[in-house]
Amino acid sequence: MRGKKRDLLSSPEDLAAWWQEALSLSTEQNAVEGAANAASWTNELLEAIKTLRTALRNVVISLIEQCPINPGDLAELNRLLHMGYQSLEMTPEGELEPRYHAFDREKQATLLSIALSALRLLAQGERTRLRKCKNERCIGVFYDTTRSVTRHWCTLECMNRARSVQHYRQAKREQMYVRAGCAAAGGTARSHIHRRAAAGGEES
Ligand SMILES: [Zn+2]
Fold first, then answer.
1. How far, in Å, from the CA of 38 to the mean position of ligand 1?
2. CA 187–ligand 1 middle distance (angstroms)
3. What is the domain extent for residue 197?
4. pTM surpassing 0.85?
């Protein structure tokens, strides 16, 4: 719907689709065991993830704006980090690897994965790369991984939307400029005629 904000996580189905996309983009080595396919996408999980999203967004905004972080938001993140444990395991090639496990795989593996990603980002990421989306209709925040640190939008959709709004405004400005130009020209022509009439001494 034009001009209306829509939450990308409106239903458990949205959540499942978002999670598959997130997994496909993820390069993380230390994922939580079973997080890729163990979840049952319930409304309860949807609400829990939205609560986490709000807390993380608040923390990130505080960091961007250099304001004190709300301890409640940090507590929410830590509560989820307590949902699992780490272990050291051997791969078939005989390498040692850290693994993460959720106590309740079905209900917690997704939440724990997101919380761990956030922990790594907030603890090891560069604060200057945390950004708010420049699309004024979007509340998204993101981590700018471009070399030049010049990314402005959270997604391509936001970039395209922002650019089409910009084009619309530009076109409108040009249109107004043309109209204003005509009015000014008309005004000048009229006053010129008035001056000529006055100069003609018709009132003498
Ligand atoms: Zn955005």
1. 29
2. 45
3. 149-204
4. no
